[in-house]
Each structure stands twice: as structure tokens, then as C-alpha cells.
Amino acid sequence: MKKKITIFFAIVIILLGLFGLTGCNLLENNDNKEENKVEVQEENSLDGLAVYQEEEDANYKLCEDMEGITFKCPSNYTSVGKSSSQPIYMDPDVPGASVNVVSENMPSMLSFEGYIEASKASVKNQSQMTILGDITTEYINLNGVKAAKLIYQAKQSNMELDITQIVLEKEGKVYVFSLGGLTKDREVLAPKFDKIIKSIK
After folding, report:
1. Distance between CA atoms of 180 and 161, rounded to whole angstroms?
2. 69 or 195: whose pLDDT is higher?
3. Under DSSP, is residue 61 helix (H, G, I), strand (E, B) or coil?
4. Which of 31, 176, 178, 188 is buried deepest, with most CB atoms within 10 A?
5. What pLDDT band is residue 153 in, cutting at 50, 70 and 90?
6. Start-to-end CA span in the chain (Å)
7. Distance of alpha carbon 74 from its chain centroid, rounded?
8. 150: pLDDT confidence band, cut at 50, 70 and 90?
9. Does the CA dihedral 48-66-117-171 come out positive or negative?
10. How do the domains of the chain map onto residue ranges?
11. Which residues contact 193 (CB under 8 A, 6 or more apart)?
12. Separation between Cα atoms, residue 178 and residue 164, nearest integer Å
């Protein structure tokens, strides 16, 4: 019973972090509207970004084809609460570990980088969990698309989680992939999450 409660709260925490990135009050950056639009042309370059490319693995399956975005996960991952707009998959071998995806329309007044900065501020200011330390940001070349990789730790009650979020824009929509689990399971989850991230396209 205790393990099930831990799993439930871990999923809730990860979802809260995920929702902090989407639907946040991005309109506060409206004053920088023109500046942000100029940034789009200059900052969408893939030059110099770390390259993430899909690695074929027979133990991974197509988990979701969501409005043109696909990703793979380990073949034993199970779908919980799957819907066309918000798929959630859990790792049956690691309690509390999950992969979640949400999407929203890209606000027209923001560049991709502006969206990321506004989203990070929203995550830091939410009250449902405590963000431990900084949110690190790395822009990457994810199968030929510029994406942001955000990494942070969060705490609620006595549980500490590691959360990695991959954010990318495609055809006017922003997709946020949240991969998370208990901090104690970091070494077990890292290779799995790395392959999932590399499969996003």
C-alpha cells in the first residue's frame, strides 16, 4: 500500500511540474513582443547544439503518435490515463517513474527561448512542490529540431524527484515531455530516459 501511495504522489508531482511549463502566464512577456519575434530568426539555428539521434533498440516500442510527434519507450512501459492530448506511461520496474506529454499552441508573442524562460519562472513560482536548486537549461538538436532540455529536482513531503523536461516546437505547437522518478532511482532511469528522449521526433 505504501508503494502505491508513493507512486501516486510521484506522478502528481511530475504532472504539476509539467503543467507549470504549459498554460503558464506567458502573456507577461507581451512587452517584448517584437524583440522576441526577431529572436526566432536568429536563435533557431542548430549550429553548435548537442546532437540527439534515435538509437534503434528491439526492446523499445512506439508509445505515441501524437499530432505528428512520436516517441518510443521500453516495451514493458504501461499506459495510464492515455488520451490523445495527454499520454502518460509508467515504468513497472521502478515505482513512481513515468513519462508524460502535453501540448499547447505556441503563444504568438514569444520566441521559443522566451517561452522557455517564462515557463521556468512559472515552475519556480508554483506552490505545490519545492524546486531544489536551479533549473538547468540546454538547447539541443533533437533529430533535426531545436529543443530545450530542462533538468531540476523537486520535493514534496519527504520525496525527492529528478525531473527532465524536453520542450520542442513543431508547426505552431509546443510539446512538453516530462520524464521523472525518485532521485534514488536516478542511475536506473538515466539510460532509459536517454533513449526515450532520443526517439522523440
Report:
1. 7
2. 195
3. strand
4. 178
5. very high
6. 38
7. 17
8. very high
9. positive
10. 2-199
11. 99, 164, 179
12. 6
| Grid cell of 172 as nine digits | 505552431
Q: What is the spatial distance between Cα 66 and Cα 185, in angstroms, rounded to a whole number?
A: 28
- Using DSSP, state whether 54 is helix, strand or coil: coil
Written as one string, the DSSP assignment of 110-162 is --HHHHHHHHHHHHHH-SSSEEEEEEEEEEEEETTEEEEEEEEEEEETTEEEE
Give the three cell numbers for residue 97.
517513474
Q: Which residues contact 185 (CB under 8 A, 6 or more apart)?
A: 94, 96, 97
pTM to 2 decimal places: 0.83
Q: Strand 130-142 relative to strand 50-52: parallel, antiparallel, unpaired?
A: parallel
- Can you read off the three cell numbers belonging to residue 80? 495510464
The CA distance from 57 to 59, in Å, is 5
Q: How far apart are CA 115 and CA 179, in angstroms?
A: 20
| The three three-digit cell numbers of residue 72, written as one number | 518510443
